[in-house]
Amino acid sequence: MNLQLEGVLFFPVTPFGPDGALNADALAEHIRSGLEHGPGGVFVACGTGEFPSLSANEHAQAVHVAVEAVAGTVPVVAGAGGPLGAALDQARSAAVAGADGLLLMPPYLAQGPAAGLHAYVSAVAEAAAIPVILYQRGGVVLDPAAAVELARIPGVVGLKDGNGDIDRMARIVRAIRREIGADFTFFNGLPTAELTQPAYRAIGVRLYSSAAFCFVPEVAAAYCKAQDADPELADRLLADFYAPLVELRSKVPGYAVSLVKAAVRQRGLDTGPVRPPLVEPAPEHLAELDRIIKAGLEIIT
């Protein structure tokens, strides 16, 4: 059981209509337009897709829309997590909808010892019966021994890192590759992951998620290729597009999602607003976002 992922990973936003409900047509259009730029996988109803704000029905609908829009061209991975009961339901419904895997978010509020996390992951992986990628972030901070034990759980095939501790991650990568094998998948899952990707590549982690792919897929795809083919272009994009984007994103909590959704709207697709507790970007920040988008597009053209 494995997932074949490569290149840049697409985490679409979840559009909402004027009535506040999930806008399935806009989500399908968003995904199809992204596919034109060659992502290595589509991760639906995850962090950028406002996973914590989705009802069970909306989550299932989003996964169904993604599977239909992708039509087997790349893997579809669905978010799951939070309370165990909700995670089990999401895992089962995602599998029924045809998802190729799960991105398992950390449990919320309740934190237990390593044995408790192991039991949580085991239960979800068994319920899903499709490959599971663990998301290390927030309250989930693994040491190499704990990471190896989780990687031994049947169905667990990967680890997404959202904490950014390169020293810890380097030791985890070495331990899992030594004990489990080279096929285990790792990827950089920090917000605006491109900025830190040179450091992750140095420890052997080449995959990464890209929020920028949501609104400038042409820029994100160009950067992905330039890492090997054109280091000068990659450095320029880091300096003049990604670094300013990270500075803007850091101004307000939640901008890692709400800025992305606003940028998708600025590029022409009406995705509706973010849901609370996220807030819409301030007017001056939208103006700065527009400038950053134009700068990125100018660099690649």
Summarize the model shown:
The chain has 301 residues and is of the alpha/beta class. It is 49% helix and 12% strand.
Task: Describe the largest sheet.
Answer: 8 strands, parallel, barrel
**Molecular shape:** globular
Please count the helical segments. 11
The Cα radius of gyration reads 18 Å
Which fold name fills CATH's third level, the topology of one domain?
TIM Barrel
In CATH, the homologous superfamily of one domain goes by the name Aldolase class I
Strand order across the largest sheet: 1-2-3-4-5-6-7-8
Indicate the proportion of strand residues: 5-15%
Low-confidence stretches: none
Distance between the termini: 41 Å
Order of helices and strands: EHEHEHEHEHEHEHEHHHH
Helical/strand content category: alpha/beta
Helical content class: 40-55%
Quickly name the level 1 CATH class of one domain. Alpha Beta
Mean pLDDT: 96
Could you say what the CATH architecture of one domain is?
Answer: Alpha-Beta Barrel
Number of strands: 8
List the keywords:
12% strand, 301 residues, eight-stranded parallel barrel, 8 strands, alpha/beta, TIM Barrel
Describe this structure in words.
This protein is α/β, with parallel strands linked by helices. It has a domain at 8-216: Aldolase class I (TIM Barrel, Alpha-Beta Barrel), CATH 3.20.20. It contains eleven helices and eight strands. The protein has helices at 24-35, 56-70, 84-97, 114-128, 144-151, 166-179, 197-202, 217-229, 231-249, 255-266, 283-300; strands at 8-10, 41-44, 76-80, 101-104, 132-136, 156-161, 185-188, 207-210. The protein has an eight-stranded parallel β-barrel with strand order 1-2-3-4-5-6-7-8, surrounded by four helices. Helix 2 (56-70) links the parallel strand 2 and strand 3. Helix 2 (56-70) runs parallel beside helix 3 (84-97) and helix 10 crosses helix 11. The mean pLDDT is 96.
